[in-house]
C-alpha cells in the first residue's frame, strides 16, 4: 500500500503541476481588453497586444481559496465515506485540535512504541504515519507536557503559512538581480536546506544513506537544469550580491517551511495532511487579505525615507509616497475589462488546489525530503517524457545529470528493499 500511495502521490503532483504551469504561463501573457484605454482612439486600441494581469497577490489569494475548498471537499467526502459526518465540521477540518488548550490529545505518548511500515515511522496503533526517515529516538522525548504557544499547533501553522506567503515574492525579487541559470541552480539545491534545517532546528536523525541520496539527486538535478538553462537568455543581468542574498533567503524559507511541516506531523500525529492544507490556506488568506484591500505604496522603499531613523540623510530631497489603488480593486477591474483571463485564472487556482492535495498527502505520509525530491525532479521527468513522446533530444551533460539522479534514486530503492527484507525475516 505504501508503494501504491507514493505512486499515486507522485503521479498526481506531476500531472496537476504540469497543467498548472501551463495556466501560469498563460496568465503571464497579455490579455486583450474589451474597453478602450483612456486617451486612445479605437484604432490605437485594436492594435495593442493587451495587458498583463496586474497583481500576483491576487493570484496567490485565488489559489489559497481554491486550496481551502479542495481540502474541505476532500475532508467532508472522506468523513462521509467512513460514516463519520456526525462528528461535525469543526472536528472534520481539525479545528478542535487547532484551538485546544493542550496538545496532550495529539502528541505522541512516551509509552507508545514506534515501529516501521514501508520505511515510515508509525505509532503502535498503526494508523497515523509520523514522518519518513525519522528515527524512533527523536519522538520518544515528546511528552504530554503543556507546550508554550511558540510550539503550539496554531503558532506552527501560522509560521508555515507566513513562510509560504513570503517565499514566492522573495524568489521573484531575487530573479531581478540574478541570472536565470543561477536561480535554476539554487532551486535545484532545495533538498540541502530542507535536510539541514530538519537536523539543526528540530534535531531529527536520518539514515546515513539519506545524505548520500540527497547529495546525488542535488548534483544530478543541478547538472541537468544548468545544461537545460545554459542556452537561455539571462534575466535580470549579472548576478549581484543582493540577488544572491535574496536567493539564499528564499531557499532558507523553503527549508523552514518543509522542516516545520515535518515537526507538525511529528508532534501532532492526529492532524492529517488535508487538515493542515485547509488551515494553512485559511491563514494564508488572512495574511493576504489586508494587502489586497489596503492601498500600497508604488515604491515601498520610499516609506523608509519618511521614518525617523538616525542614519537617514535628512538633507536630501525626500520623495513623496505615491499610493496605488488596492490590489483587489485593480484585479476585479482587470477581470471585468479582460474577460479572457477568467479561464486561465480558474485553471491556475483549481489545478494548484488539486496539486496541493497530493503534496500534503505526500508530506504527511513520506516526509518533506521525499516531497522535495518529487518536486525538484518533476521537470527532469517531464523533459524525459518529451524525449520519448515527441522525440526531443538531450545533451550529453543532461544525460550525465539524469544518470546521477537515477543513481541516487537507485540507492534509496535498494535501502528500502533491504529494510523490507529485514522486516520479512523478523516476521518469520
TrEMBL record:
Instruction: Give the start-end ranges of region Disordered.
Output: 102-145
Q: Name one GO molecular function term.
A: UDP-glucose transmembrane transporter activity
**Membrane-topology annotation of the record:** Multi-pass membrane protein
Protein's name according to its UniProt entry: UDP-galactose transporter homolog 1
Q: Where is the composition biased (Basic and acidic residues)?
A: 135-145
Mind listing the UniProt keywords for this protein, alphabetically? Answer: Endoplasmic reticulum, Membrane, Sugar transport, Transmembrane, Transmembrane helix, Transport
What is its subcellular localisation? Endoplasmic reticulum membrane
> Could you name the domain of life of the organism this protein comes from?
Eukaryota
Q: Which family does it belong to?
A: Belongs to the nucleotide-sugar transporter family. SLC35B subfamily.
Q: Which Pfam families does the UniProt record give?
A: UAA (PF08449)
The organism of origin for this protein: Kwoniella dendrophila CBS 6074
Q: Which residues form a coiled coil?
A: none
Q: Which GO terms describe its cellular component?
A: endoplasmic reticulum membrane; Golgi membrane
Q: Report the transmembrane regions from the record.
A: 58-77, 156-178, 184-202, 211-229, 241-257, 278-298, 370-391, 397-415
- Lineage, opening ranks: Eukaryota, Fungi, Dikarya, Basidiomycota, Agaricomycotina
Q: What is its main location?
A: endoplasmic reticulum
